[in-house]
Structure formats: C-alpha cells, structure tokens
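Running co-folding for zinc ion.
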Amino acid sequence: MARIHIARGGSVIGVHEEHAVPALVALGEVRRTDHWWREGMRSWERVGATFDAPRPNPTPSPATPASRPAPAAAPARPSKPAGHLRYTCLRCQHRFAEPKVEKEGSFLAELFYWAISPVAGGFYTAGRVLGTKHLCPRCGSEQLNDEPW
Ligand SMILES: [Zn+2]
C-alpha cells in the first residue's frame, strides 16, 4: 500500500496509508482542503479533488465510522424472499408475517456521512443494513423464529 503525505498550511501533518484517507476525511482528521503527495508525484494534489470520488474498490479500514464488515463482504447472509416467511415470537408466541423493522444508527447521520464522502456514506449505510433488526410487532422482542410459508 502506498503511503501518502498530508500537508496543511505548508507543513506535513501526517503520513497515512492511501486506503485510509477517505475515512480520515470522513472523520475530519484530514480536511478536503489539505494537500497530499506520495513519492514519484511531481506536485501536491488537493485531498478533496482526489479522495472524494467513489473508488472502484473501497478497502475496509478500522477507522471508518461504522466499524463493520465492508459492503463488499455484505452478502454473507443469504437473502430469503420477503413475504414468504412466517414469524413466531419466542417471548409472547405471537405469529405474524410482517415483523417490525428497526435499523441501527440514524438517518441524519447517514445523510451527514454521504454529504462528506460517498465512501463514508457507503460504509455507514452498509452498517445500518447489517444492523437491521426484526422485532415482534406485539412485544418488541428480537427473539423470533422464522419459517417458510
Ligand atoms: Zn412478541
């Protein structure tokens, strides 16, 4: 991985792995108005001009806002066809077809991360999707059995 230098106001403020930069930008450690350079480059580039663009293969980084598996690793859970499951609540024995769906995090935070960078937004959205809970509509329990119709 290429190590890149970040400069602000004419002096180098840090050296980071290139793949970590979008997350650092999202966290505010590196500003879009900072400049970056790596060995072999003729001149410094503005961070915002380079690291805002969605990258073809965003690499997961421990510094991302939602420290969860990256979107690339997301389709681990096999998706069952919606509407073909019947749920039984293990707490109140209520049977139902439509569970209450609750997502982790907040929609405002999601907007915020998307506004900063598509990479940060992507991580946050993936985290929310992975953290989605299905709850019993009667008692709110997460302890559900599901079975096909
Ligand atoms: Zn219940």
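Result summary
DSSP finds four helices and nine strands in the chain.
The helical segments are 21-27, 47-51, 107-116, 118-130.
Job closed.
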